[in-house]
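I'd like us to work through together how a protein chain folds, taking it slowly. We need material for that, and I hope you will provide a protein of your own picking. Go ahead whenever you are ready, and we will take it from there:
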Amino acid sequence: MPKTNSPLGKQQVRRQAQRLRESVDWDPQRALGKRESAAEQWASLEQSDRQGNAYAKAAGCPDCVQAQAEIGDPTGLCEKHLQAAMGLEEAE
């Protein structure tokens, strides 16, 4: 009769862990009890919205175009719009 309480071997644990990671509904944050609080979710949404607004207002800004050319990054922002994206001041 096989033992039911015998510890798993290292390879068995690795295989089971890999199978779990590959499953579609695997959420390590949920499993570890590390879900974002409502305040963290709200802050994340505000930040995403703020960044989206900053990029929308930056479209066609000559200073942003210059910053993008200087750093070679198509997502570059001028100082004013960068500060707005970071929440340090409101962009016009």
Observations:
- Residues 68 and 76 are 5 Å apart (CA to CA).
